[in-house]
């Protein structure tokens, strides 16, 4: 009974972790009153989500030869969306700093 993990499953699990990290980042900003601590507690999950988004996007691209299903569509939307969000944050910090 060998269970093989395909690229779609990997990218789907990564996208779930991204959503957990984004929920954690939002909750810390809502519940925390100290702005300096909020920056750290918000920035680290967002940065980690961006890295996971890149890894998940690579897994989605590798999994294009697998049959299409709702997990692949969900993973593709979340991972590529997180990559775009991370690039937009980096670009805005670079341009407006």
Record the SSE blueprint.
Elements: H1 7-31, H2 35-62, H3 70-95
Helix pairs in contact: 1-2, 1-3, 2-3
Question: Can you describe this structure?
Answer:
The chain is mainly α and 97 residues long. The chain has three helices and no strands. Helix 1 runs antiparallel to helix 2, helix 1 (7-31) crosses helix 3 (70-95) and helix 2 (35-62) crosses helix 3 (70-95). The protein is elongated and about 45 Å long.
Radius of gyration: 16 Å
How many helices? The count is 3
Q: Main β-sheet: number of strands, strand sense, barrel status?
A: none
Helical fraction: over 70%
- How many domains, in number, for the residues? 1
What overall form do the CA principal axes indicate?
elongated
* Mean of residue pLDDT values: 88
Structural class: mainly alpha
The proportion of strand residues reads: under 5%
Q: In total, how many beta strands? A: 0
Low-confidence stretches: none
Distance between the termini: 55 Å
H-E string: HHH
Compact description:
The protein has 97 residues and is an all-alpha fold. The chain is 81% helix and 0% strand. The longest helix has 28 residues, at 35-62.
């Amino acid at each position: 009974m060998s269970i093989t993990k395909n690229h779609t499953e990997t990218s789907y699990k990564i996208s779930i972790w991204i959503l957990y990290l984004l929920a954690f980042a939002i909750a810390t900003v809502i519940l925390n009153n100290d702005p300096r601590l909020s920056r750290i507690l918000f920035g680290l999950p967002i940065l980690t989500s961006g890295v996971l988004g890149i890894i998940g996007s690579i897994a989605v691209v590798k999994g294009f030869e697998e049959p299409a299903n709702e997990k692949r569509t969900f993973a593709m939307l979340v991972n590529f969306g997180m990559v775009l969000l991370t690039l937009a944050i980096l670009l805005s910090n670079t341009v407006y700093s």
